Every structure is written in C-alpha cells, then in structure tokens.
Amino acid sequence: MQKWHAQYNIARGGYELMGFEERDGRRMVMRGEITVTDYEPGSYISEPTLTFTEDEAQQIMNELWNTGLRPKNGAGAVAHTESLQAHLEDLRTVAFHALKIDKR
Q1: In Å, how far from its chain's centre is CA 61?
Q2: What was the pLDDT predicted at 74?
Q3: Model confidence at 10, in pLDDT bands (50, 70, 90)?
Q4: Which residue pairs, CB below 8 angstroms and at least 24 apart, start in 85-89?
C-alpha cells in the first residue's frame, strides 16, 4: 500500500504531494513527470492521470487537510460545526444531569 504526504512549499508557492511505498524491504518515493497530450472533448481517455484506492484517496484528503487546505464550498466547515454542536449538546446533557437542573 502506498502512503501519501502533502505539504505547502512556500518557495514554489504551491502544494506538493508525495507518494511512498515499500518494495522488497526498500523504501521508495514515486517521482516523475506527467505527460500532457492533446485531448478532444468527449473523446475516450484510456489512462487516467492518477488512480487511487479509497484508502489512498482518504490519506490524500487527510494530508491536504493537515496542511490547512479546506473545501471552498464550506462542506468541511459545515460538518465540523455540526459535530461541535452535537458535542456541545452532549456536554449540556451531562452538565444538567450532574447539577440536577431540569433541561427544558
């Protein structure tokens, strides 16, 4: 299985993504250039630029999140806010129970 790491490179002004794996006990990093070719919209693309398993895609998303990158549409923020609201409600329930306050 491949491991992924993302970081922001201030000198290059962009995000970097590195893929690592072990083969026969050797640690390896994936490197290389992407080939750019002509494309006619609607034509069949036989080879994708990159292919990931679900676990690898999740690793990449987590790594990019760890660099501070967030979805522009706010989807990540909305989910985070909903999670915090649920957590606060749980804390209120515990506090009201411990203090014997009637929760209305």
Answers
A1: 1
A2: 65
A3: very high
A4: none
Q: In this structure, are residues 27 and 33 in contact, taking their beta carbons and an 8 Å threshold? A: no
- The answer to whether the CB of 6 falls within 8 A of the CB of 17 is yes
- DSSP E strand boundaries for 14-103: 14-23, 26-30
User: Please, which residues bridge with residue 28 across strands?
Assistant: 21
Spatial distance between the Cα atoms of 62 and 70, rounded to a whole number of angstroms: 10
Contact 3, 20 (CB under 8 A): yes
pTM: 0.59
As a whole number, the mean pLDDT across the chain is 87
Beta strand 26-30 pairing with 14-23: antiparallel
pLDDT at position 49, please? 87
